[in-house]
């Protein structure tokens, strides 16, 4: 499958989507999602058009930052919206924020996703016995910089944690920005234990308890909450990339997921920049649909 986004600049611009109209505005949900543009000002999907690899030869991945460290707004790539803008999650008519998990403030890492990956809800993971959560694979970036929402950074993978979130497999990749001053000291999950004592334990504690203030039970983990190493994590990422390839080629049922893209030339969902602009201008596009013929 040809992904012509391979040469895409990974420093992205962001443009607010028009404020919600109709019922959304009536409910007071006026937080504007962030559409993603490339450096030339062309609309792209952060889910489908940003390549998975920043440098395949060195196993360096692209990461789309959804939530900067120490913030609370639950922002995410909107998989069901055309062009998949980054927007705040809504539940029961209210914008979602994660509670502070004592003694932490907000998310304790830069949180985001690896593009061109998908945890298939129709695939039962052989390691966890649970199906995927229907999202791109999540990343916890542990470097020193507080990133910006919508920023695309290059990361190297260190390991992974298998969260079971309400019965679904929700892998959490642990990674570090390759531009971090300490990046050379991190090459596997044990380096995190050595360089940041207690950080992995805090990560497990955070994911275990972050939904409790909302009245939900503690989350569970596969492998008794133990982190798996870099090699294991790489296999998980590659598996989710294969699931994405099937999704974007329409070889599997993605349900309401929007696969509209501008760069995957052999995808039946590939569209023109004119179509992308029409998508932006359309006021209310149903989930999984496109305003273009």
Automatic annotation (TrEMBL):
<dbReference type="GO" id="GO:0004427">
    <property type="term" value="F:inorganic diphosphate phosphatase activity"/>
</dbReference>
<keyword id="KW-0460">Magnesium</keyword>
<keyword id="KW-0007">Acetylation</keyword>
<dbReference type="InterPro" id="IPR008162">
    <property type="entry name" value="Pyrophosphatase"/>
</dbReference>
<dbReference type="GO" id="GO:0006796">
    <property type="term" value="P:phosphate-containing compound metabolic process"/>
</dbReference>
<dbReference type="GO" id="GO:0000287">
    <property type="term" value="F:magnesium ion binding"/>
</dbReference>
<dbReference type="GO" id="GO:0005737">
    <property type="term" value="C:cytoplasm"/>
</dbReference>
<comment type="subunit">
    <text>Homodimer.</text>
</comment>
<dbReference type="Pfam" id="PF00719">
    <property type="entry name" value="Pyrophosphatase"/>
</dbReference>
<keyword id="KW-0378">Hydrolase</keyword>
<dbReference type="InterPro" id="IPR036649">
    <property type="entry name" value="Pyrophosphatase_sf"/>
</dbReference>
<keyword id="KW-0479">Metal-binding</keyword>
<comment type="similarity">
    <text>Belongs to the PPase family.</text>
</comment>
<protein>
    <recommendedName>
        <fullName>inorganic diphosphatase</fullName>
        <ecNumber>3.6.1.1</ecNumber>
    </recommendedName>
</protein>
């Amino acid at each position: 499958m040809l992904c012509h986004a391979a040469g895409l600049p990974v420093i992205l611009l962001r443009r607010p989507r028009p404020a919600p109209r109709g019922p959304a505005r009536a409910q007071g949900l006026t937080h504007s999602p962030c559409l993603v543009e490339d450096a030339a000002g062309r609309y792209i999907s952060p889910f489908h058009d940003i390549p998975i690899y920043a440098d395949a030869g060195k196993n360096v991945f692209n990461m789309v930052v959804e939530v900067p460290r120490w913030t609370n707004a639950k922002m995410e790539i909107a998989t069901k919206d055309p062009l998949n803008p980054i927007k705040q999650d809504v539940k029961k008519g209210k914008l979602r924020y994660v509670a502070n998990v004592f003694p932490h403030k907000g998310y304790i890492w830069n949180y985001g996703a690896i593009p061109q990956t998908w945890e298939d809800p129709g695939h039962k993971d052989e390691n966890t016995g649970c199906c995927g959560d229907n999202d791109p694979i999540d990343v916890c970036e542990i470097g020193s910089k507080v990133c910006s929402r919508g920023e695309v950074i290059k990361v190297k993978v260190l390991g992974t944690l298998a969260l079971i979130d309400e019965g679904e497999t929700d892998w959490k990749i642990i990674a570090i920005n390759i531009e971090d001053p300490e990046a050379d000291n991190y090459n596997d999950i044990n380096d995190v234990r050595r360089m940041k004592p207690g950080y992995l334990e805090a990560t497990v504690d955070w994911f275990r308890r972050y939904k409790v203030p909302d009245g939900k039970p503690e989350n569970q983990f596969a492998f008794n909450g133990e982190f798996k190493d870099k090699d294991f994590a790489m296999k998980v990422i590659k598996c989710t990339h294969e699931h994405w390839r099937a999704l974007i080629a329409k070889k599997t049922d993605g349900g309401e997921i929007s696969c509209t893209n501008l760069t995957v030339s052999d995808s039946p969902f590939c569209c023109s920049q004119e179509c992308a602009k029409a998508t932006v201008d359309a006021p209310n596009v149903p989930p999984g649909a496109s305003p273009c013929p």
